[in-house]
Design a protein that fits this description.
Chains A, B, C, D, E, F: Antiterminator that binds to cis-acting regulatory sequences on the mRNA in the presence of histidine, thereby suppressing transcription termination and activating the hut operon for histidine utilization. Chains A, B, C, D, E, F: Homohexamer. Chains A, B, C, D, E, F: InterPro entries: Regulatory_HutP, Regulatory_HutP_bacillales, Regulatory_HutP_sf. The structure is a homohexamer of 146-residue chains. Chain A is built from 4 helices and 4 strands, in the order ααβααβββ. With 146 residues, chain A is an alpha+beta fold. The longest helix of chain A is centred in the middle third of the chain and has 18 residues. The two termini of chain A are 16 Å apart. The mean pLDDT of chain A is 95. Chains in contact: A-B, A-C, A-D, A-F, B-D, B-E, B-F, C-D, C-E, C-F, D-E, E-F.
Amino acid sequence: MVLAIDRRIGKHAILLAMSNEQEVSSLTIPVQWKSCIGKVGSMDSQKVVAAIETAAKREGIIKTEGYRETHALYHAIMDALSGVTRGQVQLGAVMRTVGLRFAVVRGNPYEDVEEGDWIAVALYGTIGAPVRGSEHETIGLGINHI
Amino acid sequence: MVLAIDRRIGKHAILLAMSNEQEVSSLTIPVQWKSCIGKVGSMDSQKVVAAIETAAKREGIIKTEGYRETHALYHAIMDALSGVTRGQVQLGAVMRTVGLRFAVVRGNPYEDVEEGDWIAVALYGTIGAPVRGSEHETIGLGINHI
Amino acid sequence: MVLAIDRRIGKHAILLAMSNEQEVSSLTIPVQWKSCIGKVGSMDSQKVVAAIETAAKREGIIKTEGYRETHALYHAIMDALSGVTRGQVQLGAVMRTVGLRFAVVRGNPYEDVEEGDWIAVALYGTIGAPVRGSEHETIGLGINHI
Amino acid sequence: MVLAIDRRIGKHAILLAMSNEQEVSSLTIPVQWKSCIGKVGSMDSQKVVAAIETAAKREGIIKTEGYRETHALYHAIMDALSGVTRGQVQLGAVMRTVGLRFAVVRGNPYEDVEEGDWIAVALYGTIGAPVRGSEHETIGLGINHI
Amino acid sequence: MVLAIDRRIGKHAILLAMSNEQEVSSLTIPVQWKSCIGKVGSMDSQKVVAAIETAAKREGIIKTEGYRETHALYHAIMDALSGVTRGQVQLGAVMRTVGLRFAVVRGNPYEDVEEGDWIAVALYGTIGAPVRGSEHETIGLGINHI
Amino acid sequence: MVLAIDRRIGKHAILLAMSNEQEVSSLTIPVQWKSCIGKVGSMDSQKVVAAIETAAKREGIIKTEGYRETHALYHAIMDALSGVTRGQVQLGAVMRTVGLRFAVVRGNPYEDVEEGDWIAVALYGTIGAPVRGSEHETIGLGINHI
């Protein structure tokens, strides 16, 4: 029931999302876990959601069939977007845009095997006006049982 | 005006907040920047805000006199708490508690010196029911001009 | 001033919204009350609002002239949508869609005639990904004085 | 993957929460499902959460051990509270109180057995000023995979 | 149905709330309207709501009996508090305090007499840290049919 | 550190936004302050943000170069929009439209010169259904250090 020190799924996901290609190759996650990374830039929050869902299904992190795992992933994405947008989950509607790297990690972060699989969605990048450089960093993390 | 690659103030803050004591000692930030780290655990969101403000003032990250810098820090804390709480900035009122490490970093993350100082507040830890182990990780980042 | 046991306007509205055509025909509401039911499915929250408003005016639940009753209905719809969306009143923008049955009921649910008319908007149906079957049920109820 | 017509878990939960003792006894749910009902009245949202969690564990709807099922229930409760409070999940802090009946139902509402168990939390009652009769009905429904 | 130029109820309410005693005496509102002003300072949002409700009832702006007018006033207060708090309707819970002047005005701001009475709640003052001077101005306006 | 009585930047901004052309000409603000006023009507929140930003840059209230001042203005606009929309920063998506006058004022409202410049964004006008006359007044104020 207790989080295992070396299986911090959120920390692993954040490190994956924050690392450049070189750094990523030096990161390790527990062998039985699954993960994928990707990039998405948009003023349209729908495209951010779609990009992450598509990648997670294509890379086999969640099942493409059925609703259960899609539902778990969706709410992890929404939670991560809350951190990125801090208040209103809106981008273009309030004239801002994001450039994000994302990571999705699936595994059991608890010492007890009964806890089963959990999913972590981490987002890292920039948010700001739709003008190059008028932006600052932003981060979001969502974790759900799956 | 563009974010400098090696001066990602949010990434630095998150790494500080996510690292244990040993790891922290191996992290580097730009020499002219200021930073502090701390811990706070509570069901009371007010205590989280107070702990970060107190540390930032005691460690000289922001001025203790005047309102301007306090105002900048306060909104960075609120943004970081949005990521941690994802939706409603409430802890005990919705029966959950947090155990957080925080980092506050101050410096100019842009290539242009005219952008002046910015402040980043990073939070990393766990959120969950007030029962040991019934919790998962959570993260938040707030960035503001100061 | 007290809610009358057999004039629970919200319960009546929810039962209307949750019932299929056969079941609806067996439901009763106080004779002096007005009500209408309808259906709307969309990724566009604006269309949900419009469908309910149009039906309520067409069926004579509220006056088509003037602002007062439109204002009362509008906020009852918004409250019902809060229950359906739980957090952010957004559909397509966060890549989800709804298929809803709605009921609008107008009458006085209190024992005291001085309380005048109130309006209840009930929504029942499904919310989920824009993929058939990838959805679960959702409900919302808004009540306002009119 | 499609919701089964006679296994609408949210509708079942709402009907349980809206029914008085006599009506409840005439309701049926699928035999392999589990459910419980209860009552809670408070200005303190924490007490509402606690009452539902306690009942669900005591009645064996979810496991008392481990975090996974508690996490699923918690978010279903939060979603239901969103519908009840419509905007800010706050009661006493904005000077209002609730008197609620709740139902928790666990089962698979989908035709495909692979979808596994889901949990529905339904709330029905009144919300209003802390003065007898100064209140109207309110409803909330949260559904989560478990 | 159209707002009358000289009966801007919101503008009147804001001017009342923003004026000192001397300025208030020079303001005029339509003769058949009712209004009251008052002050409240607190870290407790409940006290702000209570102070406005109490004043509005004591000064005869709304009826003390029945729920209908209390309900209309309550939501106008909540809307005004949204403007004051900008995001989360929380004060002490996020370590901030307010010092507010409030005005409640009741009348018909429309050219058409059929629109009946409306109520405006205006709040003006300061919000900030619980330290003298660490604060800036804040404003909120809520308008509802009554 | 204390707000100066005759330099209430928010009050000045609100009065500018609420005044017609004749009234504006009789208002005074501290000589070293900068201000601009404008109008915007839209169902699209993005256009409201853009209109204010464009005016503030064109009139020299904030620098057109760099991100720092744009960031300060942006959050003041968002805060003002929170007051206008009261809950969800959405217009057309929830089928409502605004007709607003805005004022942006820059200056130091504190007695201590160390507090530097602050920016106030005030919005005043109407919000309602996209039907002439089906609207009521609305107000919003955002204040930020710059």
